[in-house]
Amino acid sequence: MFEMAAMRSPLNSLHGEDVPHVEFNGITLTELPFLRHYNVRFQPDDQQASSRFRQLLGFDAPQGPNIFVVHEDNLCAWLGPDEWLIVTPFHAKDSLDYALNEFAYGDDFVTRVDISAAQTIIRATGPKAADLLGRGVSYDLHPRNFQAGSCIQTVLARASVTLFAQSAAAVTIDIVVRRSFAEHLWNWLVDAGQESEFHSL
Amino acid sequence: MNQKNRLPTGGQIDRSQPVSFQFNGRTYGGYTGDTVASALLANDVKLVARSLKYHRPRGIMGSGAEEPSALLQVNRGARSIPNLRATQTEIYDGLKVSSVNCWPSVSLDALSLMNWLSPFLQAGFYYKTFMYPRKGWMFYEKVIRRAAGFGKVSSEPDPDRYDKINAWCDVLVVGGGPTGLAAALGAARAGARVMLADEGQQFGGGFLRTESEDNLQWVSDVLRELEEFSEVRLFKRTTVAGYYDGNFLVLNERLTDHLGNATTRNAREKIWRVRAKQVVLSTGAIERPLVFASNDLPGVMLSSAVSDYINRYAVKPGQNAVIFTNNDTAYRSALHMLDNGVGVGALVDARTEISDPLFDKLAHRGVKMMKGSVVVRAQGKKSVSAVEVMRLSADGKSLEGTPEKFDCDLLAVSGGWSPAVHLHAQSGAKPVFDDEKACFVPGPAFQNEISVGAASGNFSAEKAVSDGYQAGISAAHSAGCQVVDLPVIQEVSDAYTSEYAIRPLWQVPGSGSSDRLKRFVDFQNDTTVKDIKIAVQEGYQSIEHLKRYTLLGFGTDQGKLGNINGMAILSEELGQDLIQTGTTTFRPFYTPVTFGAIAGREIGPTFFDPVRKTAMHDWHVEHGAEFENVGQWKRPWYYPKSGETMDQAVNRECLAVRKQVGVIDASTLGKIEIYGPDAAEFLNYVYTNSWSNLPVGSCRYGLMLGEDGMIMDDGVTAKLGDNHFYMTTTTGGAAAVLSWMERWRQTEWPSMRVYFTSVTDQWAVISIAGPKAREILTKVAPTLDASNDQFPFMTFRDSVVASVEARIFRVSFSGELSYEINVPSDCGKDVWEKVFEAGMEFGITPYGTETMHVLRAEKGFIIVGQDTDGSMTPVDMGMSWIVSKNKDCLGKRSLSRSDCIREDRKQFVGLLTEDPNKVLPEGAQLVELPTDARPTPMIGHVTSSYFSASLGRSIALAVVKGGKSRMGARIHSILMTGESVPVSICNPIFYDREGERQNV
């Protein structure tokens, strides 16, 4: 087991403290550090694997493109026909670890890779958050187009990101970004926020 | 303030806000809402510019984007912008503008003697004259650039902020005149997401130049309603500059220029990258000038501009006018002049049949109405003082009668109207020629766009508003909006003249007395009728060639006024129809866009390219590292101690690794988890060597080739489990290798059961190297048996390092005993610090990429991309040992191509200089013997070169033709200085050739 004190998030917060957080123009940016991220791959037409997934995790891996489901602690996003991202809070790490280990056990074509330290999440909240992200995202984040429960893999400020539409009403967009790009993206977003005018989409 | 031409009432200016500004050093007054052009005219300033080539006096000809001559240098210093149109530059208190292209001043321009030299300066002059001697151009160019050219770009850094935004809408309406406003309203009422953009400071377009209060009221009513829709966005001062594939349009919004020097955090300009489902082009039309002798004099103005200045800006552009037209629209301007105290001496109309109801009205008010007549010549020195009028023959080819002279200080011209089809054409559609209206009108749409109003050739505009409204509704419908029971829009009464009859008149025939005088077609480039004739005589027939030869249509205005006249004159000269001549290509941008806006925020060290940092980055900064950019990564380059040079630091770091122990952050290496029953077989396909028999827990070096057989990437891959590998790639090649493997798996070998997951960012890599490395590892990983027996070279172990679960690889890129400790990046900095602390007693030394390069060069290890360049095979690099003979792999068959088995290919060797202190520059060329013969045959080049502290001398790696069989041969390296350095070819392994040190 790790010692907690040894952990440092990509945006340099220590575990449980100093979480980066800024507010401007009614937009809030904050890091959601130390969530557990797993890359899961299996064949979508593998009935056995699918049913074992349901049995062990309690839900079906989403089959449609660019959507995610939330089940209890776990968020599961479709990244490709045979690829998913599962995100869970730190405290739920052990039970998910256990379930995924069971899931992959004995099946040599089911993989789960722990990528918790490889990426982090920047949460943008506020009705004008989509307008802020629109400065860098070539995808229409209008709630009519980017509905709650959608996720897209795209490029923001030249960094590969996955965006999650967490809620439509009080616009919350989660940005999954690779660790090494996180500081760049954060700086870019804060810089974009210098503008005094943002609009609700 | 003295604004002698300002009308006492009216206009869209704000008389409660007087403004003073400077033009060419003199202070003038105006009002908020004025442009520089309207304010200068209010102050009776007519001469504002000098022309490009002949330095002829020029004034204000238009009132918008079409203005060819009145170009300004705006502001001084870092914020200075060249060549802004006076007609679109808003004034504010403290604005400083000056004329371009004149010295010492616009009225005393030294180069105006060019006008006297002009007979020698016609089309093709430069091409013909400055050809000889060939080297002379280097000199001529400087002089010509100075004489001909416009404003100057500031050489200071731009202090302003610029931004870019992506936006989506159902309907983008371009142009906020009556048609565009109605279109936006229709689309908005239908429930569409609407963007409406207008380049001006005010919506209203053509309505602003009418005298009608009703029209202006209508504009403000529509705007009020539009503002109530939450999904409608209105953009003023925003030019739709480009129209691209996929209904993708680029808008340039100017946010702060009109505010003066107010400090703001906001962007000065924004680029809007808009994806529109439907586009409504209500861009209006541009009035054409007429072509007659000296038609460029200040005081010659488009009749629509005259109406604009009178009605919109409350400025009289002159006192006594003559009007010269070939169509109906100028009649309305005549009325505007008369109603506001501008005398109209004569209205000269090329037509003989005129049905305009205003004809009688104007005659009744004392205007001399001259049917079937033309202005043949404008007279005056620095502005127009009189015009000569003659009768035009029935065929329009010659003049009749004797010239009649009219004194005037303003000549309003109207040669007809050209729809602004620029964006329509940019979208991929082809405008077609309308004979009746004598203009190009939009052709069939190529993308989802429609032109309406004057932009579609509907100049009568009786139905401009209802046409626009309907276009907006149907665009919304096409974009997917449910359209039900929308209210009808009320027609706005008699906005313009209701008829549009025109007698095409592309040039006024010569009159004998005026034949020597210039008849300008393109005012910005000083292109005359004669230039076009010369071009035709010299064989130019294509309009595109004519453009390049005569400059017709180049420049900041892109020929908005002159192009159509020029194309028509070319057609006349060639005796063909205008449609056969066609137009030149309409290219983005519609009007110039600043580089700042195009660059946006992606500038400077912070945002030009993403900066990627490792988990230990802060430690490196705290310990004084100098950084090197490797791809997008920041990597420690070396860690100078105070007072140390780079060479001293690198020598110290190298010796520390060879003698004690060093530590380097190797986190940037690409890392890929490979899972699946076919994983080993897949590696056999992508790597040159065999992976079938690698035991679990072992590592192996692999080389990857492109399909051409050339080295693409390399790295160590470990077998973590039966179906589980952990691949490392070069720092720069990580993304490319992952895509490469995914591509082969998905497109060529879909039946292979193997998955890849990038874990580059997951693992922080702390690499310790040196004789004391084991002692440190034993301290930080107490549960691990790190003995050579239990943990031999090229194996891997899972263990716990500094209480963190780690993967430890015993591999070496330095030739020393070395361990790469991989821990999850969250713990990277903490573990690094603990390793460093544990190493203190052994003299642990942090080292950077430079030392890493020296150490591996001493060992002859290649760096893909430095020692190879995409043209090197494994055989070339002396690595045939790694190409398995028993299996196939990507690129292997290319190695047997005849070119790949040539014996004189460049081959990888070591080089030693005769002078051990001489360090060759990397990239230096190699020759057999220094000789004066040119070209000297190059036999290779230096790929890596360093001073090796361990060896006490310089070493270099190189590729030399047939080098492998030339060990010991003496060749020469030629430096940039011309110096030749003798070197001898040697084995590329300089240090520990037996490889014992890494196996201890």
- The outline of chain B comes out as elongated
Query: What fraction, in percent, of the residue positions of chain A are helical?
Result: 10-25%
Strand order of the largest sheet of chain A: 1-2-8-11-10-9
CATH class of the largest domain in chain A: Alpha Beta
- Uncertain segments of chain B: none
Q: Biggest interface pair, residues each?
A: A-B, 54 and 57 residues
If you compute it from the alpha carbons, what radius of gyration of chain B comes out, rounded to the nearest whole angstrom?
Answer: 38 Å
Low-confidence stretches of chain A: 1-5
In DSSP terms (H or I, runs of 4 or more residues), the helix count of chain A works out at 4
Q: Mind telling me the C-alpha Rg of chain A?
A: 17 Å
Based on the structure, what is the oligomeric state of the protein chains? heterodimer
Portion in beta strands of chain B: 25-35%
What is the number of strand segments of chain B? 47
The average pLDDT value of chain A, as a whole number, equals: 90
What proportion of the residues of chain B is helical, as a percent range? Answer: 10-25%
The CATH architecture of the largest domain in chain A is 2-Layer Sandwich
Mean pLDDT of chain B equals 93
From the 3D structure, determine the CATH topology of the largest domain in chain A.
Gyrase A, domain 2
